Amino acid sequence: MNTIDISNMKAKEMLGYFQNKLDEEAREAKKNGKLVCWSASVAPSEFCVTMDIALVYPETHAAGIGARKGSLAMLDVADRKGYNTDICSYARVNLGYMELLKEYAKTGVKPKELEESPAADVPLPDLVITCNNICNTLLKWYENLAAELNIPCIVIDVPFNHTMPIPKYSKEYIADQFKEAIRQLEEITGKDFDYDKFLEVQEQTQRSVAQWNRLAALSKYEPSPLNGFDLFNYMALIVCARSKNYAELTFKKFADELEENMQNGVYPYKAGEQSRITWEGIAIWPYLGHTFKTLKGYGSIMTGSAYPGLWNLEYTPGDMLSMAEAYTRIYINTCLDNKVDVLRKIIKNGKCDGVAYHLNRSCKLMSLLNVETAEILNKENNLPYVSFDGDQTDPRNFSEAQYDNRIQTLTEMMSANKKMRG
């Protein structure tokens, strides 16, 4: 595999380079008879990286297909296969992609949908690993992948946290799940788990997370050097490469660039930011440009979002209970009180003037408590909010007109609120 000098690259170039490198590594692994794993986005990457297993992330892959306007072709394949449209669109895009790869492997002829797709070329997995700390759909999705491909499925069970803080018995239970996953990987690979390397991988993960948090924290400044929509793009590496140095290097570079911009008075909006919002929910990948440009047209910048914070996986390397806690305190895996508390801090730290709630047809768990959360926070801070219908990768569930109308309304309410406050 060719190596390129990245020292003179801009952060955006590094992002593209490392995304392509990860896909290439998966293809090379498959070509050389090494194992490839398809992994859930917030399943622990540390175990497979320690075992030198190449990782592919179906959720990120599906988001990339959606952002490149290619999701409908994969959704149509899933529809024909009988997958219900109420199922998560990430799952349906991925299952459609799997069906096409299976057909290609069987016939040797690349299906038309793959030929014409903007999807990154990734190979079929030799095993899958999933974790239910963000939703239970992942369990059936990955069990189905394993059944269709006749491959092992490793499931890490992470209970929902109905109360906070997280009790010790929950952390112990999850740590035991981690140990069982390691045992299964040893069985699948025929190799002993290297705990010294595991510690190094954990330490690398923490360096990546530290730079990710440093980057996200830049939105606290007024004006903000960081447009929050950029976090949606750079999120690909905190998901797919947090246990390698690819993420650390890219985030550090981007944070350095933004800090330099701030020193030089360079900000995302040349005309200046008129208002600041929290975006609650997953990005609408097929309409990422439209959703951003509508906000920009009103001079409104996104400086708060809980979604990128899902990968704030801080823990103490070498301490399995600490790692267990990091992977269970994901805010959508916690009770209403904690979700409200998380958003309260995000709104405050981002110095936000209002909130836009994405009622995501695909992600029921993320959208379920939005109404209650919005009402509780509005009573506390009196900040205006709106909600709009959408979907992370199915473009049929989003209306540009409805979104534009809601953002215009939010902008007017934020402006009126500022005038009232003097």
UniProtKB/TrEMBL annotation:
Domain of life: Bacteria
Recorded GO MF terms: hydro-lyase activity; iron-sulfur cluster binding; metal ion binding
InterPro entries per the UniProt record, alphabetical: FldB/FldC_alpha/beta
Pfam families, sorted: HGD-D (PF06050)
EC number: 4.2.1.-
Stored PANTHER family: 2-HYDROXYGLUTARYL-COA DEHYDRATASE, D-COMPONENT-RELATED, SUBUNIT OF OXYGEN-SENSITIVE 2-HYDROXYISOCAPROYL-COA DEHYDRATASE
Family according to the record: Belongs to the FldB/FldC dehydratase alpha/beta subunit family.
Protein's name according to its UniProt entry: R-phenyllactate dehydratase alpha subunit
Upper lineage: Bacteria, Bacillati, Bacillota, Tissierellia, Tissierellales
Gene responsible for this protein: fldB
